[in-house]
Amino acid sequence: MIERTLEIRASDGAMEAFITHPSENGPFPAVIIYMDMWGWREELFDIARRVATVGYYCMVPDVYYRQGKVRFAFRNDKGQMLSFVRLDDKSKQAVLAPMHNLTDAMVVEDMASILDFMDRGEPVRPGSMGLVGYCMGGRHVLRLAGRYPRRFRATACLQGVEMVTDRDDSPHLSARVAEGEIYCGYAELDRFTPLSVISKLDETLRQGKVMHRYEVHKGASHGYPFPERDVFDKQAFNRDWELIFGMFHRQIPPYRDLATAR
């Protein structure tokens, strides 16, 4: 496997990005992973490595780059990252501030720079790509799937937040024009994404072209998809990736030209 950390010239400065992909048999279909509010970190890089090992070029951009190097890791005595609900009020405000200073429009604007970078010599196969987003990143990937429906045909939104609002530009309305497939993974006990939001998003997406599937993981809490979190749910984590990789193989299959190349 090959991995690099580099800077991409983005609209408002230098954006760090972690990139990993197999060392042979490229070019590869690309998958971009969008972080949650906790920031750019090794835990996300490990998830990117998981994706890359099965034949994908995987990138994790630091969408907080406008605000400097934002990194949070509050841990308990077992070394696990603390869930948001277990933080004191001061720590909660510190974690929320960078997320509130990042707009969806900024993330969508930065995608042009990422695509331009990939088009300039990276081992990325032309054509459809994938997206994976966590928490606030879940909302971001819905925006991007709607903004670039021909580019992103395999989108995974995990424990997404603020996906359905009363605004005319609500993320769920943006995603209505997406194509390909969208998979959403939810935690049953997630107070940030109630069942009413899940139902509304599903209803809206089914009005468009995109195939939509979701799963509510029983007993899981917000933060369940992260192996270092104090509420990590291994069964839910593996179920998500079973469904995500199935979607990837349908929409952006890896190594599809190998058979004819031999």
3D architecture notes:
The protein has an eight-stranded mixed beta sheet with strand order 1-2-4-3-5-6-7-8, with helices on both faces. 41% of the residues are buried. It has helices spanning 42-52, 89-100, 104-118, 136-147, 171-174, 195-205, 234-251, 258-261; strands spanning 2-10, 13-21, 30-34, 57-61, 129-134, 152-158, 181-187, 211-217. It has 262 residues and is of the alpha/beta class. Helix 3 crosses helix 4 (136-147). It has one domain: 3-Layer(aba) Sandwich (Rossmann fold). The longest helix is centred in the C-terminal third of the chain and has 18 residues, at 234-251.
Major sheet details: 8 strands, mixed
Classify the beta-strand content into a percent band: 15-25%
**Number of structural units classed as domains:** 1
Low-confidence stretches: 258-262
Which strand order does the major sheet show?
1-2-4-3-5-6-7-8
The CATH homologous superfamily is termed Alpha/Beta hydrolase fold, catalytic domain
Number of strands: 8
Counting helices, strands and paired strands, the structural category is alpha/beta
Number of helices: 8
Report mean pLDDT, rounded to a whole number: 95
Shape type: globular
* Top-tier CATH class: Alpha Beta
Note the run of SSEs as H and E: EEEHEHHEHEHEHEHH
Which labels suit this protein?
single chain; 262 residues; alpha/beta; Rossmann fold; 8 helices; 8 strands; 33% helix; disordered C terminus
